[in-house]
Design a protein that fits this description.
The complex is a heterotrimer of chains A (about 300), B (about 425) and C (about 280).
Chain A: H1 2-47, H2 64-71, H3 73-105, H4 111-119, H5 126-136, H6 143-152, H7 167-175, H8 179-193, H9 197-205, H10 210-249, H11 262-272, H12 276-304
Helix pairs in contact in A: 3-8, 3-10, 5-10, 8-10, 10-12, 11-12
Chain B: H1 2-38, E1 41-46, H2 58-66, E2 69-74, H3 80-89, E3 97-100, H4 105-111, H5 118-122, H6 133-139, E4 148-149, E5 155-160, H7 161-167, H8 178-188, E6 190-191, E7 197-202, H9 209-216, E8 221-223, E9 228-230, H10 233-247, E10 267-273, H11 276-280, E11 288-291, E12 307-310, H12 317-328, H13 330-340, H14 347-350, H15 367-375, H16 385-399, H17 405-419
Parallel strand pairs in B: 1-2, 1-3, 7-10
Antiparallel strand pairs in B: 3-12, 4-12, 5-10, 5-11, 6-7, 8-9
Chain C: H1 2-36, H2 41-46, H3 58-66, H4 69-100, H5 106-117, H6 121-135, H7 142-148, H8 153-165, H9 169-176, H10 181-192, H11 194-210, H12 213-218, H13 227-232, H14 247-272
Helix pairs in contact in C: 1-14, 3-14, 4-7, 4-8, 4-11, 5-8, 11-14
The chains are: A mainly alpha (about 300), B alpha/beta (about 425), C mainly alpha (about 280).
């Protein structure tokens, strides 16, 4: 009896020690979470209720920022643009990453060179990418207009980034070259490698077409990865759009505010108009938008994602 | 073996990084200590690089004349105002002297970020009574002199003489009307057979000259009593004009790969800031000259300046004022004028004409500058840059035919209303 | 039978052609940057030809003569090395118990980590900015380096995925040999996770080398300017005129900025795919 009690005590002690070790390992994250996430969130809500200016002067004004914001046409335009940009960019980049990963996983000669070519654009600094495409899509001496002119023989002068009909096409094309797309491609590649070969072989015996193989086997098998990438794509669309669009179309989101996502507007309100409190109210909205996207994606995924077990 | 080397390398980098980061945090207090016992170093925050030629670098000359070490922190123009606001909000003391823009001086004074210089000025030789008139109106109502204007600049019309000669059109004069300008621009435009413009009559207005056009068309632009943006019929008429000129190929469309078409010899005229006289100098491959902005309803161009002011958190305000005193004196002002082409804001010094940039040999019409300064008023520069840039973005949309000029002006006005007076 | 074989061969060729096309699309911006950096400003703004008519290296000279290039480079390298070290150390530490230990609150912590992964940094940057201003960290690299020592959720996640793929029996064997929990981490897991350390290290380096948003918010003066900000400011304009964009100079600076990530990729490419473990993403 006594012996047993002793041993259970030491076992308990050992367990406790183990738990403490685990918490000690987690400590950096916990401190970081409190200091750099939880506190800023609380602070964000607090500042959004004041009329804080960039020079630090502030006063409590209740919900006035929110009232003004919901009456502002600029805000609503930006809100719509953000939703559109996030959803489309998420879809476009995910599909493109899958295509590139599929191509690369099709074993052929020179695959190393292809991966190099496919992945390299994503390591270009976003700023450099933005300026590059400003000139590629330029009106007078842009590469694209030059190419089309050369191919068709007609004098093509499309003002890609300033024409309301072409601006979105151009913008979403540029997102294919971002860091996020390259990273997604890597993750898809490793996911595709994990799909058991036997499944394909079994299918081949049945004489299935490549398309059928893709729909029947590949897609369900990589669906958890698609979900993961969709979430990451969504976050980076919300997050990374600033670094891409700020040098590309400016803080006003030219033309006519068509590319003014919320992050650009937040920057403009806080640093060009000095309205920090107002910018915080917008950040709250952006925060909520991100939460909705996260919840939404998981809700959809419950229905369609296939899990091994 | 190899692995060991790799780990060694990683640890070395880690150590090096740690040390460097450590140094960076320790860097500040030591600098502060130096300031305390010497009091002989003054840091000035400005937005453009000092002149590379030492004789034309007023800060280097100030250092020589006062014996105080002068250091310059360059903050890029695009975020100059916002970065300065941040420094004031955090009580940053890394710069002793700010060169402040028109729209910030009142805010900074109210927030206690800068100090009144009246006590210093009583004992100094700076001729405050001799400032150009517009300056005194801007600092009125602050209850003290918080800033001293470092120079004065404005917008003018640049034109390519060779192109005017080729078409046989007489050169623009300071008495040119807006109609004269428009008809000349049309005549100077040359197109290909397929309608693509080879030579534009005029460049698109830039961030400064949009406002010169709107003011000239009769709008007040900036109401100093309320601090509001005032645009209406004038803006509509100017935007309509620009849109028409873009449509007929006289002006280029706004585009993502913007280029200076005037300096590359693809446009005959251009409305730009006067400081470009110094930039162009003798570097353009053609003959060029300047004139005042053509007069539409009234003669209008915006006055630009910056104000030397002393950071309230600075630990060496006395030394800072000594440096400012030199920069505001005849020698400092003359060097600034020679280097930048901007006249002094002190009338008696400006009259001596040091601002007539020597390298710009093809410029004959220097009277354009004095006339423009006389007509110049403080305008859009007193408004938050978010508001004015937003307005230009709307105007560009109208120019591209994405909305009517009336809508663009209305939207710009609505945004200004919801933003100013926060 | 033969027709099936030829069809398969035709399919392979088709795939190969598509691969080449995609490769051209993806690589063309890099060619454009590279050749653009040897053009003069006038040529760049007036012709859309890919290759420069009269090559010039003046643009590179301009960058080095007219800016503190070495200072910006130092800042960028400091930022990159500091954050990467920080995130590798802290994220792997945090991932360890989440992957291989049982303790109360584990699921809560993991879901919080996944949850914070979804908060875009840009939504919190304004309050963080005020906060760092109060501590006096603005205009330095600290607001970016210090948080990296407190684990990035995304990297924690990647580490956890990888650690889970290492057989648990190894732990048990090590415990038998008298290894403590901490010992297991250093002696068993780290040596086996070289590829994942490399992958995350490379990805983190590339990310911070290219990062624009945070430096734009936190850095004021020339002293701590990084290459990405310099690209938007110092290299962007022709000297003295803030309204004429110096495109070839931007292209030259971009070319110089592309090179290090390119080399890093060549060094790390063999780890890149194997370092990311996606199996059992949920669970």
């Amino acid at each position: 009896m006594i012996m047993e009690k002793e041993s259970s005590k030491t076992a308990k002690k050992k367990k406790l020690m183990n738990h403490l070790t685990a918490y000690a390992f987690c400590a950096p994250w916990m401190i970081g979470f409190i200091c750099f996430t939880l506190f800023p969130i609380a602070f964000l809500f607090a500042v959004s209720l004041t009329n804080r200016k960039l020079n630090g002067v502030s006063q409590f004004i209740g919900l006035a920022n929110y009232v003004n914001m919901f009456q502002s046409a600029t805000f609503w335009n930006s809100f719509r643009v953000t939703l559109l940009f996030t959803v489309v960019m998420m879809i476009v980049t995910t599909i493109w990453a899958v295509i590139m990963a599929l191509l690369l996983n099709y074993r052929q000669r020179l695959n190393g060179i292809f991966q190099f070519c496919y992945f390299l654009p994503s390591v270009i600094p976003t700023v450099a990418l933005a300026y590059t495409f400003r000139t590629i899509f330029g009106k007078e001496a842009g590469l694209l207009n030059g190419l089309i002119t050369g191919l068709t023989g007609k004098n093509v002068m499309v003002n890609w980034l300033y024409d309301s009909r072409t601006v979105y096409v151009a913008l979403f094309f540029i997102t294919l070259f971002t860091y996020n797309t390259g990273q997604m491609m890597l993750i898809f590649r490793s996911g595709l490698n994990d799909v058991p070969r036997e499944l394909y072989e079994a299918c081949e015996i049945d004489g299935a077409s490549p398309l059928k193989k893709f729909l029947k086997i590949t897609l369900p098998m990589i669906s958890p990865i698609i979900l993961f990438n969709a979430v990451m794509g969504c976050i980076s669309a919300l997050n990374g759009s600033f670094a891409l669009l700020y040098p590309l179309t400016g803080e006003n989101g030219d033309p006519n505010g068509m590319s003014q996502v919320l992050s650009l507007l937040i920057y403009k309100e806080a640093f060009s108009n000095m309205k920090v409190g107002y910018a915080c109210a917008m950040s709250v909205i952006l925060f909520l938008v991100a939460c909705c996207f996260g919840i939404g994606i998981f809700a959809i995924s419950k229905k369609i994602v296939y899990y091994e077990n | 073996m190899r692995r060991k080397k790799l780990w060694g390398l990683i640890f070395l980098t880690a150590a090096a990084v740690g040390m460097l980061v450590g140094c960076s945090t320790k860097g500040k207090p030591t600098a502060g200590e130096q300031k305390k016992d010497g009091g002989q170093k003054v840091t000035i925050a400005v937005w453009n690089e000092p002149n590379k030629d030492e004789a034309l670098n007023m800060y280097a000359q100030a250092e020589k004349a006062t014996g105080i070490k002068v250091e310059v922190t360059v903050i890029p123009e695009s975020d100059y105002s916002s970065k300065l606001n941040q420094m004031v909000s955090t009580g940053d003391d890394s710069a002793d002297v700010y060169v402040i823009w028109e729209n910030d001086i009142a805010n900074f004074a109210k927030a206690g970020g800068i100090i009144p210089m009246d006590d210093y000025l009583k004992k100094s030789s700076v001729q405050t009574s001799d400032f150009i008139d517009a300056v005194s109106t801007l600092s009125a109502g602050l209850g003290g002199t918080y800033g001293l204007p470092w120079c004065a600049a404005t917008e003018i019309l640049y034109y390519n003489k060779d192109m005017f000669d080729a078409e046989g059109i007489s050169y623009p004069g300071n008495d040119w009307s807006y109609k004269d300008y428009k008809s000349a621009a049309e005549k100077l435009t040359k197109k290909d057979t397929d309608g693509k413009t080879q030579q534009y009559g005029c460049t698109l207005p830039n961030t400064q000259t949009w406002w010169a056009g709107i003011g000239g068309a009769g709008d007040q632009v900036y109401d100093p009593t309320k601090g509001h943006m005032v645009i209406g019929d004038g803006a509509v008429s100017f935007v309509t004009d620009v849109a028409a000129m873009v449509k007929s190929g006289v002006m280029p469309e706004p585009s993502s790969d913007t280029a200076d078409l005037f300096s590359s010899g693809k446009a005959a005229m251009s409305w730009q800031g006067s400081w470009n006289i110094g930039t162009y100098g003798s570097s353009l491959p053609f003959q060029w000259d300047i004139a005042t902005i053509p007069t539409d309803k009234i003669k209008y161009n915006t006055l630009h300046t910056g104000f030397y002011s002393i950071n309230a958190k600075s630990k060496n305000q006395d030394a800072a004022f000594k440096v400012i005193e030199y920069l505001m004196g005849e020698e400092g002002q003359t060097i600034n004028s020679k280097a930048s082409g901007n006249p002094s804001a002190i009338k008696s010094i400006a009259e001596k004409g040091a601002w007539k940039v020597e390298s710009a040999t093809s410029v004959k019409n220097w009277a354009a500058m004095t006339d423009s300064l006389k007509a110049g008023v403080f305008g859009y520069t007193c408004l938050p840059s978010g508001v004015t840039n937003n307005a230009i973005s709307e105007f560009n949309a109208a120019v591209l035919g994405q909305m009517t000029p009336e809508e663009a002006v209305k939207k710009a006005d609505a945004y200004a209303r919801e933003t100013i007076g926060y | 039978m033969k027709s099936a074989k030829t069809r398969k061969k035709a399919g392979r060729i088709l795939v190969f052609i598509i691969k080449i096309l995609v490769g051209i699309i993806m690589f063309s911006p890099i060619i454009w940057v590279l050749t653009g950096s040897f053009k003069t400003l006038t040529e760049f703004t007036s012709s859309s030809g890919i290759f420069p008519k009269k090559g010039t290296i003046e643009n590179y000279g301009y960058i080095f003569r007219h800016s503190n290039y070495m200072l910006y480079l130092r800042n960028t390298v400091l930022l990159m090395a500091g954050t990467t070290m920080g995130t590798l150390i802290s994220s792997s530490l945090v991932a360890y118990p989440l992957a291989r230990m049982e303790f109360p609150g584990k699921n809560l912590i993991f879901s919080l980590i996944v949850g914070t992964m979804m908060i875009p940094n840009i939504a919190l940057i304004v309050p963080q900015y005020i906060m760092f201003g109060k501590v006096g960290w603005l205009d330095s690299l600290l607001p970016m380096i210090v948080p990296s020592f407190f684990a990035y959720p995304y990297n924690v996640f990647l580490f956890r995925q990888f650690f889970r793929s290492i057989p648990k029996e190894l732990d048990e064997a090590a415990t038998m040999d008298g290894c403590s929990r901490i010992g297991i981490f250093f002696r068993v897991l780290i040596p086996l996770s070289k590829s994942t350390f490399t992958t995350i290290g490379v990805l983190s380096c590339v990310f911070w080398w290219n990062e624009l948003t945070q430096p734009v918010f936190y850095i004021n003066s020339d002293k701590w300017r990084t290459l990405t900000i310099a690209l938007m400011t110092t290299f962007m304009y022709t000297s003295g005129n803030a309204f004429v964009i110096n495109w070839p100079s931007i292209m030259a600076a971009s070319t110089l900025m592309i090179l290090p990530p390119m080399l890093l990729y060549l060094f790390g490419s063999r780890f890149l795919v194997e370092g990311i473990k996606t199996s059992g993403l949920k669970g």
